[in-house]
Amino acid sequence: NVLEPQFTRGRIRNLQENRTLHLAGTQAARKMMSSDQLSAFDVKEESQAELDAFGDHAFGRSCLAASRLVEVGVRCVEVTLSGWDSHINNHSLQSSAAGTLDDGIAALLKRLEERGLLESTLVVCGGEFGRTPQINPAGGRDHWIHGFSTLLAGGGIRRGHVHGATGPEPNSEKPDAHVVDPVTIPDLHATILSTLGLDPTEELDTPIGRPMKRSEGEVIESVLGLV
User: Fold this and answer.
1) Mean per-residue pLDDT for 52-71?
2) Domain definitions of the chain by residue range
3) Closest Cα partner for 178 from 214, 134, 220, 135?
4) Which residues, in sequence order, are CB contacts of 83 under 8 Å at separation 6+?
């Protein structure tokens, strides 16, 4: 029998949606759009003192919204802050960005702790690149893949602890030779997974049946206060 064109198109569309999880994604988006948790984005409900503590800028307001989202049960929140790619005028660009970052992060951690949420919430603050230890001719600092900093707080992370240090020799034949207690990206991932109660060594099967560990790194035990 020849299927009616309309039925055929509908069947193909359904098959495609099931294969790509398009329908599930659409339903999840609709559920989010009608969620009571959306009210957490309305930071105008906060007092002026609280708004001032987070800073009168987009990043501060975003950190405040992030805290409010955690308070209503949202499991993962991302806040971004641009302005760190200082190939020129490094000192002025970095000072401005650092001041903005300090406002938001400090107020976020304080609020989470005051509400008893810091130990059950992992805060990760990091970027994509380090900056060269030396200043270039344009007064800037260029990309430096051999070391950069990441801040971890809450979630069982050891307080006041600094792990490692980056090296001061950008022109060395072995630029990572001066790095103290180096940590790899997989190590950082393993540590984050561990704080979330997930075994980083557990193997999961990909959709095509390929076994893959959550992380190939090692947990940084000193960061968790285990050594």
Assistant:
1) 95
2) 36-182
3) 134
4) 93, 96, 97, 100
Taking the C-alpha atoms of residue 9 and residue 17, their distance in angstroms, rounded to an integer, is: 12
Q: How far apart are CA 82 and CA 59, in angstroms?
A: 9
Structure-token pair, residue 70: 């955690």
Per-residue burial over 57-71, b = 16 or more CB atoms within 10 Å of its CB, e = otherwise: eebbbbbbbbbbbbe
Beta-bridge partners for 213? 203
The encoded tokens of residue 10 equal 């509908």
**pLDDT class for 97, splitting at 50, 70, 90?**
very high
8 Å CB contact between 146 and 162: no
The answer, yes or no, to whether residue 8 has pLDDT greater than 60, is no
Contact 200, 190 (CB under 8 A): yes
Rounded CA-CA distance 107/50 in Å is 9
Q: What is the pLDDT of residues 165-197, one digit of tens each?
A: 887 766 556 766 778 888 899 999 999 999 999
Q: What are the DSSP calls for 144-170, one per residue?
A: ETT---EEEEETTPPTT----B--S-T
Categorize the per-residue pLDDT at 12 as very low, low, confident or very high, splitting at 50, 70 and 90: low
Whether 133 contacts 167, CB under 8 Å: yes
